[in-house]
């Protein structure tokens, strides 16, 4: 099979992981499903040659794993962690700039980074739905 077909398979699997994440009942389960989805999305971008998308997904995996670990320790992620991951997303966009279209994954990931940083599971789901629709662009 061609890389394009494998990329589409990864995309479908990542979409399934995202849909499952919204059926879960708590933040930690949601974050695990999102880690899986980001791994698959990153693979899809890599197979399609989308450098910005791949790097953004890699940062998103690190972000979500970090927030998951902080949550498991019973703490809240600090504002400096939010700034770190937002900064990494912006830096990624600057370094991988390939026209305005390459900024879309960066903007979406910055919005979603804020959503996963704050503690409300309801806000995560609302913003996650908006972000999911934005990925369709």
Could you walk me through the main structural features you see in this protein, from its secondary elements to its overall organization?
With 137 residues, the chain is mostly helical. It is built from six helices and no strands. It has helices spanning 3-21, 27-48, 51-72, 79-95, 104-117, 121-134.
How helical, in percent, are the residues? over 70%
Query: What would you call the structural class?
Result: mainly alpha
Straight-line N-to-C gap: 26 Å
Kindly state the number of beta strands: 0
Q: How big is the Rg? A: 14 Å
What's the total helix number? 6
Give helix and strand order, one letter per element, not per position.
Answer: HHHHHH
Overall body shape: globular
What proportion strand?
under 5%
Largest sheet: none
pLDDT under 50 segments (min length 5)?
none
The overall pLDDT, averaged over residues, is: 89
